[in-house]
Amino acid sequence: MTVSLERPCNELSPTARRIFGIDGDWNFGMVRETGWSDVDSNSHVNNLTFLKWCEDVRIRYFYDITGHWPDISKHTLVVRSLSFNFERGLQLGDRVFVTARTSKIGTTSWVQEYAVWHGNLIGRGDAVCVFIDATGSKSPITSHLKGCIRRIDRNVG
User: Fold this and answer.
1) How many CA atoms lie within 13 A of 117 on its CB side?
2) What is the pTM of this model?
3) Which of 49, 64, 122, 125 could staple 116 via S-S, CB 3.0–4.6 A?
4) Which domains does the chain have, with CATH numbers?
């Protein structure tokens, strides 16, 4: 079964940079709109929603660099750690832009950074992602995959 995307993986453009106030060395991202289920009892977007957006952009990033979804029957990535720092809140109906970039590639893991934008920076975070094989053991990142990542993030360490 082939799964296709409803829209392009990478939605970052000069127009998106201007509209959402994106600055810095970001080369990948996607638009998200806050919905009713994203709002907490204080009428603010729930913190968990930001982490979900990071997951969404991480999966699309992987799809964009490999051309397919992670295949758990071979090897895939899991999140070892995740953090997010909030600069300001969001409200129901706000459209945001979520960016992702790889800052470091190791032998079996990579560090990916995230930022959420709405006129300017809303918050930023990072995740350490570990590649594992079908048995759950750490799996080396192939030189091919490293090359795919560097096509998007040329400055990765």
Assistant:
1) 23
2) 0.89
3) 122
4) 14-148 (3.10.129.10)
